[in-house]
Write a structure and sequence with these properties.
The chain is an all-alpha fold. The protein has 9 helices and no strands. It is globular.
Amino acid sequence: MKDVMTDENAKAESDPDTREGVSGETSGGGNRRDVRRLAMQVLYQMDVTGVRDRQAIIDGLDDGFDNPQVREQGTDLALAAWANHKEADCQTAELAPEWPTHRQPPVDRAILRLAYHEITTGHAPVKVAINEAIELAKHYASEQSPAFVNGVLDKLAKQAPDINEHATPTTEQAPANPQAWLDDAKDEESC
């Protein structure tokens, strides 16, 4: 029993989302891992449904699963990531030309968009953003997704100084359009 406790303590020490001051609790009471997970889920939802209204998204979330702070912070993080999703998609298309955005599963797109946002805005250290994206892929995406996500983000990290690190996230609301996800995924002219 003592060894198990020691192993868990060691894991907590090495896990960036449990160390205080790095990622653990965010200001407002949400655990960053939960906020990140929810942001990925909201990005997926935004991509597939076209709903981009903050309050509509929050109202549609399961209030029995995440606390209000996590729901609000996750939604805000997703909206900020969505504001730069075209840049993320263009960068991904450059780094993985055989897997353009419209060929990627929506979960992979959501994970890559979130990680891109975290890396380019400094929301999280590069290594943390990549590790967390891989963990999300392991839990929510296909068996091949963690390797794909890791490969793309590793290339992105190597180019990080060349990426627009001062992208200004906005929460501008786009009109709901059921076809928006497909039109958006196919829109490669903006790259």
